[in-house]
# Entry
Amino acid sequence: MKIKVFCIGDIVGRPGRRVLAEKLYPFVKDNEIDCVIANAENAAGGSGLTKQIHEKLSKYGVHLVTLGDHCYRKKEIIPFLETQSNLVRPANLSPYAAGKDYAVYQTSKGAIIAIVTLIGRIYMKPADCPYAKIDSLLPKLKNEADIVFVEMHAEATSEKMAMGYYLDGKVSCVFGTHTHVTTADERILSNGTAYITDIGMTGAMDSVLGRNAESVVRAFRTQMPNSFEVASGDVRINGILVTVDSHTKKAESIERVVICEETQGDTQVYDSDDGKPDYINGF
# Structure
C-alpha cells in the first residue's frame, strides 16, 4: 500500500497560517495525501504556539504538529502539551520537560504514521543525545506505528545529515527544519530512507527567515535591539511530499513542494532526480 505524507516547513505567523487555510485542503485533495505533518513552533506571532492556533491548524487539515526550540515560548501551551495526542516537542529534551516524545496518526487507509522530533546540539541550547533518544524510542514505535518519520530540528547541516545516515533503513523519512531555508538535496538513501536537510518555511519569502528584512538588517548593522516583525510579502508553503510503501517501510519518492499564495500556476513539485519542476498545477 502506498502512503503519501506531506511535511510542511516552519509556519511563521499569520501569513503562514493564512496560506495554509487557503491552499492546504485543495493540495491534499488533488494529490490524495494521507497524512499532513507541520512544524508550528513559530505559528503564533512568529514564535511559539497557542491552543487556539493549534486548533486552527487541525481545522486546516494538519494531522500531526511538531515543535522545536521555541516550544515553550508561549507559556499557555505547556499544560496543553500534556493532553494533546497529535502535538510533540523535541524528544531529546530533559525527561522532565512538558510534552510528548512522539505522536501517531491513523490514516484512512489504516496505516499508522508516527512522528518524532529531535533537536540538534550544535549552536543550539543544551539537549540530551538525540541518537540515544531515538534508539530508545524505535522499539516502541515499531510496535505502535507502520511508518516512522523523524524531524531533525537543527542549525548545522552536518548534524542533520549525520542523523539521516544513522537512521537510514531504520525509519521511512528524516527531514530537517529550523533554518527556514529549503535545501535541494532531497534523495532516497541507500537503505530506503527519504532524506532532505531542510524543508524550509511556510510564510513570507520576501523577508529574512519570515521577519521584516529592514528590521533584521538594522539589527545586524547597528548591533542594537530591534523588534523583528513578521513579514507579509510573497507568502508560500514549503515542504516535501513523500511516498512510502507501508509493507517494506521504505520511501519510494521524495519531492520538494512550493505552493504560492497569490500567483497563478502556483504549485511546483520538484522531483528528486533532476531538481526541476515535475509539474505545475494551480488551484
